[in-house]
Amino acid sequence: MTIASLRILVAGAGITGQALAFWLTRGGHQVTVAERFPALRATGAQVDLRGQGIEAVKRMGLLEAVRSKLVDEAGVAFINSRGKARATIMANTSGRGRQTLTSEYEIMRGDLVHILNDVTKDDAEYVFGKGVDDFEQDPHRVVARFSDGSSGEFDLLIGADGQGSRIRRMLLPQGSDPYWRVGIHMAYWFVPRIASDSIIRDTYMVAGGRQIMRRSHNATETQVYFVMREESEEASAIHRAPVERQQEFWAGRFRDSGWQTERFIEGMKTSPFFYSQEIVQVRTDTWSKGRVVLAGDAAHCASPYSGMGISAGLVGAHVLAGEINRHPGDLPTALANYDRVLRPFVNEIQGQVNPRLLRLGMPMTQRAIDVFQATTALACFLHVPDLAARLSKEDRGGNWQLPENPAPTSAA
Ligand SMILES: Cc1cc2nc3c(=O)[nH]c(=O)nc-3n(C[C@H](O)[C@H](O)[C@H](O)COP(=O)(O)OP(=O)(O)OC[C@H]3O[C@@H](n4cnc5c(N)ncnc54)[C@H](O)[C@@H]3O)c2cc1C
Questions:
Q1: How many CB atoms lie within 10 A of CB 382?
Q2: Is 110:14 a contact under the CB 8 Å cutoff?
Q3: Atom of ligand 1 nearest to the CA of 165
Q4: How far is CA 229 from the centre of its chain?
């Protein structure tokens, strides 16, 4: 069967943008991926694949490539200020039920970015250092304007440009706020690994709604996460400040925290990367308008607490590209189907993030921390997390099934 070959511009070479390039080029389309950064952003910390996200990787034929890069994380320990584990929840490696806090598929984001790039770079045109600044559309085409002053004409523009999407800002009515905030902020970076850094993730709770996590992904590096509850304008604005100011902010909020805080703050200054963000979800009823459509975090960021950010990007790309490949000559139907098919999955994973539960896990007082840890220790002693995971029928995306995509085809 031959189909109409569309000229498709994807804004953003993240996980979603590259997964779109994978499926759309296999549908016979001419795909350009424009990334505003000068090179592939193969940075980031450890991410997990769960449920339908694992299935999406399988359908791409990349499960073995992903397996070869998995990070060995045995479980999560809740520790006291001397680093002693009060409770430990091990990963569910039984192959049955739901995954625990640790997924069976933990991978560094950069490794996944490279895996996707390796299988798309010869078929799609990647353009780096060129952001999509603006667009105009009529019923027949969309004209994108790029950050270098150039412009290009396409049949479809896909905004896979992340949580702060510029394409989304232009698509939604002026003044609309798609962010659903949970009042939590997070920063993460790498420090040199030391002998006592094990393959169990340490979680250290600090009074004042703060948390420090440590996890090690290779022989030389350890990841550090500072997380805190705060609902202030200063905290919400800090993520857009220069990195030095962000680091001062985080050091100031955690300096008195004990355990290995000083080591982590010292290591911040020389870390190869530093990422600071407010935990938000993107919730909008509008995913497309005419010949412009949103995908991944730009459309439906579920937040790191969903454990499904990466999976949702892969799943969303699978569904969107599948519908475009199925209806290349009828974009309104393709984009309406994308919304109809994917929306229940997104509602499911977004709905699983419960701000009250999150706050419960980040207590304000030492007494509440002690109660939390004693309760968790008792539950672990009774194997409650392990049994709950193994006996659960569904993983985080519920029983929603990844649809079949049309077989690869050649362009007309
Ligand atoms: C550098 C980086 C590190 C990350 N690290 C982690 C992590 O450690 N843990 C975690 O859970 N999640 C992390 N994330 C987020 C995670 O990758 C996403 O939640 C998930 O993969 C969905 O990805 P996405 O492709 O939809 O969006 P993103 O991963 O945000 O990718 C969007 C891409 O679009 C590009 N872009 C933005 N605006 C434009 C524009 N106007 N024109 C062209 N390109 C544009 C960005 O530079 C980026 O490469 C990180 C994201 C990035 C960009």
A1: 10
A2: no
A3: 38
A4: 20
Instruction: Give just the sign of the alpha carbon dihedral 340, 160, 315, 347.
Output: negative
| Distance of alpha carbon 345 from alpha carbon 197, whole angstroms | 37
DSSP-assigned letter for residue 313: H
Query: Which residues of the chain register pLDDT less than 50?
Result: 1-2, 411-412
DSSP calls for 72-138: ---EEEEE-TTS-EEEEEE---SSSS---SS-SEEEEHHHHHHHHHHTTTTTSEEEES--EEEEEEE
Residues with CB under 6 A from ligand 1: 11-17, 34-37, 41, 43-45, 47, 109, 131-132, 160-163, 166, 275, 296-297, 304, 309-310, 313
223 near 253, Cβ under 8 Å?
no
Best probe residue, ligand 1, of 31, 40, 271, 297 (max atoms within 8 Å of C-beta): 297
Query: For all residues of the chain together, what is the average pLDDT?
Result: 92
Whether the CB-CB separation of 146 and 83 falls below 8 Å is answered with no
Overall pTM surpassing 0.90 (yes/no): yes
Predicted local distance difference test score (pLDDT) of residue 396: 64
Cα 97 to Cα 389: distance, rounded to the nearest angstrom: 6
What is the predicted pLDDT for the residue at 130?
97
Query: What is the Cα–Cα distance from 56 to 69, expressed in whole angstroms?
Result: 17
Residue 412's pLDDT is: 37
